[in-house]
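Justification of resources, computational component.

The compute hours requested in this renewal are based largely on the per-chain cost of generating structure records like the one below. Each record pairs the submitted sequence with a full structure-token output. That output is archived, and it is also reused by downstream analysis tasks.
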Amino acid sequence: MAQKERIDRLLVDRELVDTRTRAQARIMAGDVFVNGQRVDKAGTRVPTDAAIELKGQNLPFVSRGGLKLQAALDAFDYDCTDKVVIDVGASTGGFTDCVLQRHARNVYAVDVGYGQLAWKIRQDPRVINLERQNIRHLDPALIPEPCDLAVIDCSFISLDLVLPATLRFLKPEADLIALIKPQFEVGPDNVGKGGVVRDLDARQGAIERVIDQARAHGMHHLKGIDCPVHGPAGNIEYLAWFQRRA
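The structure output for this chain reads:
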């Protein structure tokens, strides 16, 4: 049985809203539905793998994650047209939604969770929903075609573990765009109150370590940007573009 969490916290964790205050406002407005049922109390505890939907959603994507990837694709001038994409840590589907709107051919949406992918994304024929799947142990038979692009947005795990597992599913010439979250890279001693990394040297060191790790696996670091959309606790994340060349 799935663990339960307050609905206002889950809205922030899934990046459907940016703060708990905003989550509580949307709940009070009657905009929040869990497994198809309206929830009107911020303290209501719901399964962490529940399907959550916001009515009257004014984002261009199913979650704020799409805004993050959009910023990177714009900054990198990256064309997703006709790409086969693997989305690692798909969650609600913000990254998947973003590449679909940019004309990706199809997307393999991988996540250890269950029931989190937004209905709009779940029913899109271009999406192969690989839920309850850990990228580190994913059966290659589930992704029968090599991918042109990997996009990664994982929490509670270091990219040191995610990157090499993801590379198995890419073409010899392929791209990878990873959201580097310092709070999961610096170690617990450098994470302050509220889960925020305030030590800029520790943050930069974490970014450089992930880049070095990617290079050790044959990837070239082309560009990177500070994410203009901050993480739920206010962490400044980093979007890195890597490329593998034959």
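The longest helix spans residues 200-216. The chain has a mean pLDDT of 90.
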